C-alpha cells in the first residue's frame, strides 16, 4: 500500500511514516522544503515539495496513492493569526478532501481533542458528548480552525468521501524534531518553575496514536466516524513534576493562582497589541490551560485496537529524545 502523509516532519507524521515503512508499506510525504537528512533518516519516503495550498501537487500525489493520512496543521494558541490558521487547517483540509473524492481514496484526518467537548475530573468527554456552554473549548484561532477542518471532512463525506477522523490528546514521544509538545519538556527543564497551570490534559504516546491512525485506514470505517486517541488524564502540576524530576530540575510546588494567571494573560495580550506579535503567553492559552481537557478513548480501544501505554515509559522516552536532540539553552 502506498500512503500519502502530510505533516511528515512533525511528531505524529514522522512516527506514522516510520511505522508504515516498518510494516512494508510505501510512503510519500508532503514537505514545505527539503527536510534535514536526519528527519527522514532511515526512511525511503518520497518527499513532495509543497504545502496545503499546492493543489496540483496534492491532487497528483493522491491520484498515485492508495490512502491519505492528513496530519499537517498550524498550531498557534492565541487570538491572532486566525486567517492564516483557517487557510491551513480548513482550506488546506478542503484541498485534501477534494482530491480524495476525485480519486476515491480513503482519508484519515487527524483532528485534535481541542475540537471536541472538554471533559472534567468527574466526567471525561467522549466522541458523543454534546458541546454546549458548559464544556465548549476556548474559541481561539486553533480551536476554531481545527473544528472547521473537521467540518470540511464531514461535508466531504456527504459528497462521497471515505474518511475516518482521529482526535489525539497531548502527544509526547520520540521523533519530535521541531519540537512541538517537546517544547514543554524544554521549558520545564530549563529552570525551576514553582507554579504549574491550573488545569489538566490527556497525555498519550505519539507512537500509539500513529499506530491507531494507520489502523483507521482499514478499520475506521468510511463514514467520518471520530475516534478520541487519548490516554492518561493528568493535571499539569502532576505532569510538570514528572517532567522536572526527569530533567533534573526542582519540581513545581503548586498550581498558579487565578489572579496571577489573569495578569499574565492580560500582559501577553497587551504585548501582542503593541508589537503585533502574539507570544506563547496570552489570555487564550491561559484560559485553555486552566481547564481539564480529560477524555475517554474507549471507542478507539474497542474499534482501532488503540493502546494506552505506560505513562512512565512515554515520559522517559520523550525526555530522553529531547535531551539528545534539542538544546536547553
TrEMBL record:
Asked if the record carries the keyword Lyase, the reply is: yes
Domain (NAD-dependent epimerase/dehydratase): residue spans on this chain: 3-186
Which species is the source of this protein? Novipirellula herctigrandis
**Where does the source fall among the domains of life?**
Bacteria
Q: What is its EC number?
A: 4.2.1.46
Q: GO cellular component annotations, sorted alphabetically?
A: cytoplasm
Indicate yes or no for the key word Lyase: yes
The protein's UniProt keywords, in alphabetical order, are:
Lyase
The GO molecular function terms of this record are:
aldehyde dehydrogenase (NAD+) activity; dTDP-glucose 4,6-dehydratase activity
Gene that encodes the chain: rmlB_2
Extract the InterPro entries matched here.
Epimerase_deHydtase, NAD(P)-bd_dom_sf, NAD(P)-dependent_oxidoreduct
Its taxonomic placement starts with: Bacteria, Pseudomonadati, Planctomycetota, Planctomycetia, Pirellulales
Q: What protein am I looking at?
A: dTDP-glucose 4,6-dehydratase
